[in-house]
Amino acid sequence: MSTASGFTQDLPPKEGYRPIPTERVPLRTFLGGRLAIGLCLFSTVVGHYIYFIEWKRIMREKIEMKSAQFALLPILLAERDRTFLKQIKRNIAEEKELMKYYPGWKVGTYFGDPIYKTVPEDQFIEPNHIEYFIHASPKDFDAKRMLKLTS
Predict the structure, then answer these.
(1) Residue 20 phi, psi dihedral angles, 5° rounding
(2) Does residue 11 sit in helix, strand or coil?
(3) Cα(44)–Cα(52) distance, rounded to whole angstroms?
């Protein structure tokens, strides 16, 4: 059936449409039940074996790293203490330099009176972090304070 504008109506095929499938279509099976269980067991055994080998390697590396930390710890602590004492000496020298024109000033005292009266003179008193950084840059003091607050 043709119209004046050349349009044709879309009609069903002459032999008709195919029948609509209504019965159950079974799935294709790739693996049987026994093969699937066997493959699962095989991969589990192989995976456990590889995991055990890697676990042993990781434990060896952990022991090695812990041994290295134990070996380096005394050296690092000694360097930290050495740096600490060097900074204390620098602070004392800086205080001497700042107060050299002030009459009667003695380093480590408050106008000649000892700060700690009950402590023997030869005993070391560790300064707090404000006294430690008293002659340092404010940036260094802030960095140390933030490190102390966050750790």
Answers:
(1) -80, 125
(2) coil
(3) 12
CB 116 within 8 A of CB 127: no
- Domain extents for the chain? 33-148
End-to-end C-alpha distance for the chain, whole angstroms: 88
pTM: 0.57
- What pLDDT is stored for residue 30 in this prediction? 83
Residue 77's pLDDT is 95
Tokens representing 147 are 């490190």
Give the H/E segment covering residue 27.
Answer: none
Which of 32-41, 80-89, 134-143 is predicted with the least confidence, judged by mean pLDDT? Answer: 134-143
Name the token pair of 76.
Answer: 């690092």
- Nearest one of 91, 94, 78, 95 to 129, comparing CA atoms: 91
